[in-house]
Amino acid sequence: MNGRDAAPGLVALRGSSSGAMRRMKRTWVTGLIAKYENKKREEEPMHDNDNLTIERPTFVTHLECAMEGDHYAADQVHNLSKAGKPLLVRYDLAGVKKALTKDALAQRPGDMWRYRELLPVRKCKDIVSLGEVTTPLIRLPKLGKKFGGGEIIVKDEGRLPTGSFKARGLVMAVSMGKALGIKHMAMPTNGNAGAALAAYATSCGIKTTIFCPADTPEVNVSEIELQGATVYRVNGYIDDCGKIVGEGKAKVGWFDTSTLKEPYRIEGKKTMGLELAEQLGWDVPDVIFYPTGGGTGLIGMWKAFDELEKIGFIGSKRPRMVAVQASGCAPMVRAYDAGTEHATRWEDAHTIASGIRVPQAIGDFLILRAVRESKGFAIAVDDDKISSALNEVAREEGLLLCPEGAATYAAYKDSLADGRVSKGDRVMLFNCATGLKYPLPPVTRTLDRHKPIDYTQF
Ligand SMILES: *Cc1c(COP(=O)(O)O)cnc(C)c1O
């Protein structure tokens, strides 16, 4: 009983006799102890790991094809639906509404597991955590002022384990993998997802095999291998790597953990939406700029807002969702402009923002749907703009973004200039990884301590 006092009812029951009686009493005693434990816990001070150790009711009812709407059983291993489309996890939201209050949430430690009632993991023992902190909202007041007073907020996801928001998705995929008895996970990655998968899978003893494009940043390839995976550089793009994973499914028996071919990464990424709404006092920003590759985060947040409204935590207001891509790889922007439901593959994709170099996304229709329903838009920025945006925010606000995060700032500036967002809009930019994971510009300035120093230069 974890060092806590024994339940008072227990002593009085010792020494009872007949089998049936004993069983009845045992059930009654167990119930009593559970009640007592819960009460004690409520009265006790909060512990840092409460969200990982206190069992909470869960509400998953089934999974649903995002295209056709047909249902699939919960608590079983799934990849895509029969139609070959992503599966979305559905909850008994009326049940969640009864079980969860804003006040109860406020009593819990600050990490993504505080939203357990809206997450798929049933049992604490399956949670594979490496410290998924609540990520801060960082205001950019100087830049806001420069552009006429709008509030610019950066949600800095670089603070998460493995230095990127891929941790949110993969901690959920791996926890569910553990719960469902998966032993070997494989994945195509541009770097950050592979690193997060490797870390979480290794921490719970699941084997991982990871394929990345040959020019994936060195730090990603190293961290993946160091965190216990076997990683291969492949002479192709992420979707070429995905084909290898798909083909190996039958031959090796590994689980295909590709973006949106696995149902739970969205649920992890969804916590960005839950978290930002709670951080804003159960409100949403006017516009969200999201650097879009496979789109898991954008789709996940859109789902989060819907669920939050259904449990009565927010109203019907939605942020306009803006999908930001690099001009060297902008399939969603092309499809948005063309007014199509799906996006065709982008050939010869190139950009310094490797996390959004995704030529083809299986969730294309979900990204485009969220963008259109929210009255947002899709926008591309080139690598020069991304680099100068990164410089500007670092030099003027002291915040180092990753190139993908910098792309959202560049897109914000362009959208202000062409009137697609207004000066008064409260905007949220997503910085999805720590800028420290990427090659940084060299500094060549030196100082010779053996020569006279000209102090007027400083
Ligand atoms: C994966 C990634 C993205 C794109 O996220 P999706 O939700 O897959 O669209 C953006 N930035 C970084 C740094 C990433 O690692």
UniProtKB/TrEMBL annotation:
Its cofactor is pyridoxal 5'-phosphate. It comes from the Bacteria. CDD domains: Thr-synth_1. The keyword Ribonucleoprotein does not apply. One of its GO terms (molecular function) is threonine deaminase activity. Residues 128-432 form the Tryptophan synthase beta chain-like PALP domain. Keywords: Lyase, Pyridoxal phosphate. GO terms for biological process: isoleucine biosynthetic process; L-serine catabolic process; L-threonine catabolic process. PANTHER family: L-THREONINE DEHYDRATASE CATABOLIC TDCB (PTHR48078:SF6), THREONINE DEHYDRATASE, MITOCHONDRIAL-RELATED (PTHR48078). This is Threonine synthase. It comes from Bradyrhizobium shewense.
